[in-house]
Amino acid sequence: ITKDAQAEGKYIKQSGGRGQYGHCYLRIKPLGRGEGVTFVNAIVGGVIPKEFIAPVEKGVREALENGIIAGFNLVDIEVTLYDGSFHDVDSSEVAFKIAGSMAIQSAVRQASPIILEPIMKLEITTPEEFMGDVIGDISSKRGQVLGTSQRGNVRVINAIVPLSELSRYVTILRSMTQGRASSYMEMSHYDPVPSNIADKIINKENK
Description:
With 207 residues, the chain is an alpha+beta fold. It is 30% helix and 35% strand. The chain contains 5 helices and 8 strands.
């Protein structure tokens, strides 16, 4: 997510006999990259009994893990449970778990969520004559050349490229350089997916 939000989750069901009642308010805010998911219990005065706090957290974490936007799990988010209510007879762990799930889904949709993609560090060793083709190919893959250097009689290109663009890259590189170039890649970081590509992913998931 990219901004703070808050939402209410209310699950009430009456179907003869004992009903179901779960009600909570959540506040969410983005955390730094790699910080994961933090759940904060800020309930005071017993507005939600202690035995229903863990079910709310479970509902929240399951919803985040299952994915609210296009089926991707959500990361780097702080979730604070700060208010709610309960019913002496009808409240249950199941009802509060559902209420927590409803609240987090509503809050996330208000918090301008973005899709992140893995970015790879790429080191390519190639004869000078293929430099132009290799660099052009990197650019066509939404990549960025960080620098080049000389190593003996070959050139070394350092770049970062989205993992999604590197399918069959070793084969493509060998074909482009008559089998004379080699590459090494490792994970670098995560970056937001460009909006036009994110829209395609979301639209595909919603079909």
